[in-house]
C-alpha cells in the first residue's frame, strides 16, 4: 500500500472508531450488524480495496445519520 492509501485507510479506521463509540449503548454492546461492518471494513483497510471501503461508509452513513 502506498502512503496515500495507508493514510486514507487510517482515516477510515478512525471513522470506524467514531461510529463504534457513538453506537455503543449504556451496556457497552454494539449491534451485530455494526460488528460485521467493522470487521469487513477492517479487512478492506488492510487491502487496497478503497472503492469497497468508500461504498460501505456511504451505507453506514445512510443507516446511522
TrEMBL record:
Gene Ontology CC annotation, any one: extracellular region
Top-level taxon of origin: Eukaryota
GO MF term (any one): granulocyte macrophage colony-stimulating factor receptor binding
One family name in Pfam for this protein: GM_CSF
Example GO biological process: immune response
The protein's name: Uncharacterized protein
Lineage: Eukaryota, Metazoa, Spiralia, Gnathifera, Rotifera
